[in-house]
Amino acid sequence: MTKIKTLADLRKIRDEVQSKIRLRENSDHPEQVVQVKVGMATCGIASGAKETMKYFMDELEQQAIDAVVTQTGCMGYCYAEPTVEITLPGKEPVIFGFVDKEKAEEIIDVYIKRGELIDGVIPLTFRTIDD
Amino acid sequence: MKTISEHVLDIVQNSVRAKATLIEVMVDEDKKNNLYTLSVNDNGEGMSREVLEQAVNPFFTSRTTRKVGLGLPLLKQNAETAGGSFQIQSEPGKGTQVRAVFQLEHLDRPPLGDVWDSWLLILLSNPGIRLIYRHRVGKDSFEIDSQEIREMFEGVSLQHKEVRKALVEMMKNNLVEIKASK
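^ Those are the sequences you sent over. The predicted structure of the assembly is below.
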């Protein structure tokens, strides 16, 4: 394969992807997919949140789980970074602390796939993290 | 922070919180004068003089979730440890410019790191923001503008693995081409 260097090279990729995604056109409803928010403020980044987020993106895609992975700010649990908030469809958000790759794997296998809670949940006192 | 890319990821969040719609990240390598400059400019809401004076104080933050704000102080500290300097300018309604200068060859200058991942993560999490990354080494430079990318990928989500991989590869190849320092 030739090296991707210019916009023209990217355009080829777009065309390839475009033909593929027609086949796997899935839900556009955010409330029906798993939402993963990774805490990415100074504290999170310093603790390796970037690797955690990349892992979630790659792994969820790999396992064909419908999910949106985004970043969020500091939730005030700097001691427990990287923190990740998982919202399963129709459920309240749950925040996990100290999420490295191993923990992320456990979260995907046990919580996201089977819906069973695991250790490492940070007790919530509020409903959303947006305010 | 261990790498420039982590600083970028971090500092850009300040711009995002300041409701910026255009963020420019620039790395400028000046081998002749042994300088390595990281600039982050945004068109966000800016800061008043009082807030600006407090911006590099680690015990000041505009957040309410915690009492410290370490993003800018850590960047300033890293720049100064690497024999450089740090400036921040801001005007309410106009935006903010952050500039950290390092000595290029200084042992304590953080390596660039995977700046492509930072760029992509910011982009995917902030669909409304135009994000430009420019890297200059002497006369050679490379620029990637999220607006161009989004226009080109119209209708195709950047979230797709193939697309993400292609974008990362493109940035990596171009940085190698202009001989960006590690």
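Chain A has four helices and five strands. Chain A touches chain B at residues 3-7, 9-11, 13-14, 16-18, 20-21, 40-43, 45-46, 50, 53-54, 57-58, 61, 68-71, 73-76, 78 (CB under 8 Å).

Shout if you want it in another format.
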